[in-house]
Amino acid sequence: MVPSPNEIKASCFLPESANFHGWLIHNPEKDDFLAKYLEKGDSVSKLWCAFPDGALRFNRHVRAFKVVQKLDIQNQTIIVAAFDLGSQIIIIAPDEYQERMSLPSNNPFRSPKIKTL
Which among 22, 30, 56, 73 would be 20 to 30 A from 62, CA to CA? Predict the structure, then answer.
């Protein structure tokens, strides 16, 4: 069962002022986020971005999950929760993805501290 944004916020000790930004589709190996996708006939094009505030946001986890399945990217992506702290947007991934989230990255937007559930 997927925890609610409020449960994640409490378990990660985020400040009360942190607003849930949405569920994002993240590729931890490339350290980017799904920004857009377009289906045209049998082909699907995907646009990725380096930062969470440019990512395609989903209000419900199940909607992000359906897009991952539709695009057949479940082996390369994970669904993360994003929270807006005012000065930055942080992402939080489930514990089972800690190793993938800790991969070296040259993304200048990556914080040295990765939050996990």
Answer: 30
Dihedral of CA 5/49/88/29: which sign?
A: positive
CA 113/CA 117 separation, integer angstroms: 13
Nearest 5°: phi and psi at 87? -95, -15
User: Residue 35's Cα: distance from chain center in Å?
Assistant: 11
CA gap 82, 85 in Å, rounded: 10
Domain of 22 in residue numbering reads as 5-116
Residue reference for tokens 């996708």: 37
Which phi and psi angles does 8 have, rounded to 5°? -65, -45
Residue 33 near residue 52, CB atoms below 8 Å:
yes
Model-wide pTM > 0.70:
yes
